[in-house]
């Protein structure tokens, strides 16, 4: 298995080398050390963020009106937006701020309706730009999870083209720096495992986005309680549902490495073991473990491990970490797996990394290690 894994790794290196293109010219681009900030957090205000560890922070999330496609900002949200951008711009060091639109719990059909016609795209885009400027943000991020068919993927490409044109036009007329434009995307450029095959529109994405935030997590979870799983593994010897495969698929499809940012989870997925004595990755399970729908944020994982004297295992073959105590099994990333992933991203010329979500860390443990690993 080790030799097969080496061949797989070597093939990725060759692939990325071939597609490097203008890699030397892009070497001077600043790295992205990003993270999403959940706006519903009541115990983690923007003032608590250690900006020395990040370059870009995303306000998560904002949604337009599902009929007009305009952003209607109530006073409470306006106060949050203004405080977020102002606080992070005045921190030492300051960071760039972006408004992320959508999110995993958003309304995919709304995005589909909006993107389907030029007029509604224009309304949405102009309103988004207006909100970003009004509250002092540096950019906008789209998190549409996910276009459901080839037509919606095509419309997504039209949306990014219209959005970039509007950003350039606005910057020219106001003589301000153009807003950043990014998108959170599926771990793979293609949806190979769904009933409806579709592929992201790479050409308009690479031409109109500053970068993509690839969500390299949620490979396993509560939808399958029959076996434990590494939910964000770098390599999977048994399938192509892995971070290495997903990132390579984007680059193979033509997305430049300097426009690819790797996602890292600050949370784990939990299972209830069928037999506590059988406790590796893929061990038989009978349900989810502790946490909301089998999810524990990293700080909760640390507390669980300490309280229950859990056995912690770093799995080098998959580059993931898991712990178990009694019948509880947790798959997550720790400093070791995160460091290895950062090394992988740097070796393959990626632009940087981001976390979901910034408030889930434990005393900045993983965020600190990630920042150091990228700088080395």
Automatic annotation (TrEMBL):
Xref: Pfam families: Glyco_hydro_18 (PF00704)
Protein name: GH18 domain-containing protein
Signal peptide extent: 1-23
The family this protein is said to belong to: Belongs to the glycosyl hydrolase 18 family.
Keywords, in A-Z order: Glycosidase, Hydrolase, Signal
All copies of domain GH18, residue ranges: 31-376
Top-rank taxon: Eukaryota
């Amino acid at each position: 298995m080790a030799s097969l894994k080496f061949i797989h790794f070597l093939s990725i290196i060759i692939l990325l080398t071939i597609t490097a293109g203008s890699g030397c010219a892009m070497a001077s681009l600043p790295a992205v050390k990003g993270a999403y900030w959940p706006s519903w957090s009541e115990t983690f205000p923007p003032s608590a963020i250690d900006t020395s560890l990040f370059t870009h922070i995303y306000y998560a999330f904002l949604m337009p009106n599902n009929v007009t496609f305009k952003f209607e900002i109530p006073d409470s949200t306006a106060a949050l937006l203004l405080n977020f951008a102002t606080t992070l711009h005045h921190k030492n060091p300051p960071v760039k701020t972006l408004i992320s639109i959508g999110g995993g719990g958003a309304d995919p059909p709304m995005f589909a309706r909006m993107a389907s016609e030029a007029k509604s795209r224009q309304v949405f885009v102009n309103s988004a730009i207006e909100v970003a400027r009004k509250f002092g943000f540096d950019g906008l991020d789209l998190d549409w999870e996910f276009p459901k068919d080839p037509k919606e993927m095509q419309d997504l490409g039209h949306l990014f083209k219209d959005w970039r044109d509007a950003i350039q036009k606005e910057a020219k007329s106001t003589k301000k720096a153009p807003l950043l434009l990014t998108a959170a995307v599926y771990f793979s450029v293609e949806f190979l495992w769904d009933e409806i095959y579709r592929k992201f529109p790479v050409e308009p994405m690479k031409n109109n986005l500053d970068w993509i935030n690839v969500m390299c997590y949620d490979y396993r979870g509560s939808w399958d309680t029959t076996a434990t799983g590494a939910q964000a593994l770098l390599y999977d010897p048994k399938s192509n549902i892995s971070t290495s495969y997903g990132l390579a698929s984007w680059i193979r499809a033509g997305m430049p490495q300097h426009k690819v940012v790797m996602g890292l989870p600050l949370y784990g997925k939990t299972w209830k073991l069928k037999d506590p004595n059988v406790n590796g990755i893929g061990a038989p399970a009978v349900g989810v473990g502790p946490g909301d729908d089998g999810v524990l944020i990293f700080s909760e994982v640390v507390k669980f491990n300490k309280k229950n004297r859990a056995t912690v295992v770093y799995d080098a073959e998959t580059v993931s970490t898991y712990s178990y105590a009694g019948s509880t099994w947790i798959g997550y990333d720790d400093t070791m797996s995160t460091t290895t992933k950062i090394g992988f991203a740097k070796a393959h010329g990626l632009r940087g990394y981001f976390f979901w979500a910034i408030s889930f860390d434990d005393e900045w443990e993983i965020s600190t290690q990630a920042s150091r690993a990228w700088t080395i």
